[in-house]
Each structure stands twice: as structure tokens, then as C-alpha cells.
Amino acid sequence: MHILVTGGAGFIGSHLTEKLLDLGHRVTVIDNFDPFYDPGIKEKNLARAHEFSEFILHRCDILDTEMTDDIFRTGRFDLIFHIAAKAGVRPSIADPGGYCRVNVAGTLNLLELSRKYRIGKFIFASTSSIYGNNKKVPFAETDPVDHPISPYAATKKAAELLCHTYHHLYNMDIFALRFFTVYGPRQRPDLAIHKFFKLIDRDQPIPFYGDGTTSRDYTYIDDILQGLINSIDRVSGYEIINLGESQTITLNELVAAIEQTMGKKAERKMLPLQPGDVERTCADITKARRILDYDPKTPIQTGLAHFYLWFKEINR
């Protein structure tokens, strides 16, 4: 199978690319190496992928309609994994226009190209941020998501709606997979777990927003990959599916777990809660278990230990 992965040089995309290549698929990656964080990190993410003869990389923006059209025309893809996006809640507040262009118009471009070149399988990486400050726990795919609290969440919801439109009009099979706070080796350096490990290692204070009672459903990268890979042969119709660990941990508990993993205490820099940040996330994964045979197996303590091994390796 020839599979296109957009955003394939990033954290999740590079892991997915490697897994697909290991499984024997031909993989084409589109990535623009956005300088949101060091592009050199993304270059290293793809080092192993370059060892495969069935790997192709296009340094391209998903908003470049001419270049993406050429890639689709010659690629003859069987399935699209659309992972590329402008990510992050707080940066989206500073640049809502940029987030709208990439996450909405960029997704529209890929859906149009899939229609034009008759690619009937499309898997879209969505986010738990869509749920906003949902009062019902755990979050289910049937819960209303009409009150996003950041431009990032709003753009992802808009992209989900476009996916449904293309399914309805052109009978495309589309899954929108809502990821819940993914972490693990190669995690973006701006995200909490990576940032906390780095600052504690350097004896610098960690930014600690609020009173520590906000909570997240942290999902280890291997479990997310299981959901993605299991989608390949199951994508049919239009479905929104949560991919989470279905376990929550507060910020206080997370920091304590990181301290235990590192054998080192953190110094906290107390800060107010940030606009756009949700109070908690918690995935109902009943639907994922039923449709994808999804079965996450990595508790937070194990995942943090795996992350720390990688962190020490890259910082030797």
C-alpha cells in the first residue's frame, strides 16, 4: 500500500512513518519543516526513515496547491494520514489567522486533492481540545463540541466538519481521530512533559500554571500508533474516535511522577492559569475499543520512564 503522511517529520508523524515502513508499506511524507521549533529536530526524526528504499520525502507546505497537486498526481496514494497542523493552544491565540490557514484551508486542499485523484481513504488527526471545558467525564464522541476555547480547537473542529462534508458528497471513508495529550520520545520541546524534564535536569524552575488540580489524559505514543495502524484496514464511512489512555492525572501528580522518575525535585514557578487551557481531559475509549480493537497498555509511570531513557540518550 502506498500511504501519504502529512506532517511526517514531526513527533507523531515520524513515529507513524517508521511504523508503516516497518510493516512493508511504501510511504511518502509531506512536511514543510516549520520553524515553530528547531527544524533540525525534525531532520533527525526522519533519519531512520531515510534508510528505507520505499520512503519518499517532499519538503512542501500543504497550502502549496501547485506542488501538492503534482505530488498527488504522481503518487497514486491508497490512503492519506493527515497529521500536519499548526499545533498548540497558547500559540494559536497569538496567531489565529495562521492556524486557520494551515488547519482549515490546508485540510481543505488535501480533501480536494483526494477527491480529484479518487483517494477514498482519509484519516485525520484531530484533538481532545475540541471538547473545551466539557463538564461530563469521560469525554465521549457524542458529546456536544460547540464551545471551543482556543483558535486551535476551533480550527480542528472546522476541519472535522470539512471531513464530514467530503464523506457526504463524495462517499470518502474518513476517520477523525481525537488524540489526547500524546507524549513519548521525540515529543515537541514546548510541551509540558518534555519541558519539565529539560528544566528539572538543568536545575531551572518549571512553569506551574494554577494550583495543580488541572488534569490530563496523557497517552503514550505507542498506544496512539496502535490506534492509527488499526485504522488502515477499518476506515469506513465517517467516524470520530477518541484515542486516549482513559486515565487522568493532575498537574501535581504529573510533576511528582517526573520527580520520582528523575530522582530529583522540581522547583516551581507559580503562574496563573493560561487562556485557552482546558481544566481537564479524559477519553471515553469505548468506541475505539469496538471499532479499532484499541487497547492502550502504557501507564504514565512506564511512559515517563521510557521518555527519560530517550531524553538522557539525546542529551549525553
Radius of gyration: 19 Å
From the spread of the alpha carbons, the general shape counts as globular
How is the CATH topology named? Answer: Rossmann fold
- Describe the main β-sheet briefly: 7 strands, parallel
Order of helices and strands: EHEHEHEHHEHEEHEEEHEEHEHH
Q: Span from first to last CA?
A: 38 Å
Count the beta strands: 13
**Tally of separate helices:** 11
Kindly report the spatial arrangement of strands forming the biggest sheet.
3-2-1-4-5-6-11
Unreliable spans: none
CATH 2nd-level architecture: 3-Layer(aba) Sandwich
- Helix fraction bin: 40-55%
CATH class: Alpha Beta
How is the quaternary structure best described? single chain
What does this structure look like?
- This protein is an alpha/beta fold and 316 residues long.
- The chain has a single domain, classed as 3-Layer(aba) Sandwich (Rossmann fold), CATH 3.40.50.720.
- 42% of the residues lie in helices and 18% in strands.
- It has eleven helices and 13 strands.
- A seven-stranded parallel β-sheet has the order 3-2-1-4-5-6-11, with helices on both faces.
- Strand 1, helix 1 and strand 2 form a beta-alpha-beta unit.
- Helix 3 runs parallel beside helix 5, helix 5 runs parallel beside helix 6 and helix 7 crosses helix 9.
- The longest helix is centred in the middle third of the chain and has 21 residues.
- It is globular and about 55 Å long.
